[in-house]
Amino acid sequence: MPHRNLVSWTAMVSGYMRNGAPELGLGMFVSMVRSGLCPNEFPLASSPGACQSMAHAKLGHSLHCLAAKVGLDGNPYVGCSLLMSKGNCHGYLCAYGFFSNLSVKNVVTWNEMIAGYGLHCYSEDVVRLFHSLLCFGERPDEFTYSAVLSAFQQAHDTSDCSENPDEFILASILNACANSALIRQCRCIHSVVFRTEHSRHFCVASALVDASAKCGDIYAAESAFTAVSSQANNAIMYNTMLTAYANHGLIEEALSLYQEMAKLQLAPTPATFVAVISACNHLGLVEQGKLLFSSMLFEEGMNPRRANYACLIDHLAWKEHILRMMPSSDGAYVSLSNVYAEDGEWQSAEDTRRRMVEYQVQKVQGYSSVEI
Fold it and tell me: Where exactly are the structural domains of the chain?
């Protein structure tokens, strides 16, 4: 290639790095700099991560100096790569000094630091870093939770940590287990919760019930719920367990738990009715679902939320009751068609739209208004 620009050099550097040839990638990067080109954040973010041992420590330091010279040492992605280099060459306790001085930290740099500490079994520091991340207002992502869980697994448990994770950390990790259906990790955190007596906190207890249920272990969810509800009754806990029963198709248990709430005089919330009406939907108990919705309106005096209306529409659509109730309403047909579409029943969705044409039901055009 007679004329090489920054893009072509960057493509070669990145290509070598991604295909398991870091030595060639570093060599290409050095050649690029010697040719007189000033690197941008892309090759600089790729190169330091290739410095994997003390043999590359000097080169890693040179890359850090170059990044500072061109004003990119504050870039979070370049910083993350430099952090990885320092951690691999000098250890993550040394890398923490560099991490502390980073002018811009994002979730990527936090994840790298947490993962590095976890890899070297610094479980206590993992907990502190995760807590600091939350205090700084950074939002953890799935890689953060994975790094924290891996750290606990690497250390087998948290028994050798002088500082136990608090209720906020445990609730966050349990939510990650629930979203990823990590049953093994969920059981590990379950044992930590009861050993540290954090089960008394409703945010942890409800997260534990939710995570166990979403991981498929409804018996563990029941066990956690029973342990907490025996100490104090709380509508949030009952709502979580109601939702778990409904999602597992345990309709009789859900309705029984709802009746138990009434006996204990626990005030239901809109979330309570979403769970119970969903349970009725599974059994096709259309009339009972309608009665529950009426109860929410007239007996409890609640203003239904969007989730309540969506649940009712889904419930009535189970046997197309919504069309019999509102045969000339364009909203009824559109809502039913959308329910079918979300479930992947495209033929039913198309049939519903076709019936609108047959019955000459016109869809009212929506509009927006702006005050001038």
Answer: 1-103
